[in-house]
Amino acid sequence: MGPAIWLRTHYALGSNLKHEMLVAGVDMRKAVDGDHRLLSLRRLHNYGPDWQRMFQALPELLENYVVTAVVPASKASGWKTRSRALQSQVHSECVVTWLVVEDEEALRSGKVAVMFVDACGNEVRSRRVEAGVAEDVGGFWASSSWTEMDEWENAEYGHEYQSGGSRGVSCWRARAALAGQSDSQRLVTM
Question: Beta strand pairing status for 95-102 and 111-118?
Answer without folding.
Answer: antiparallel
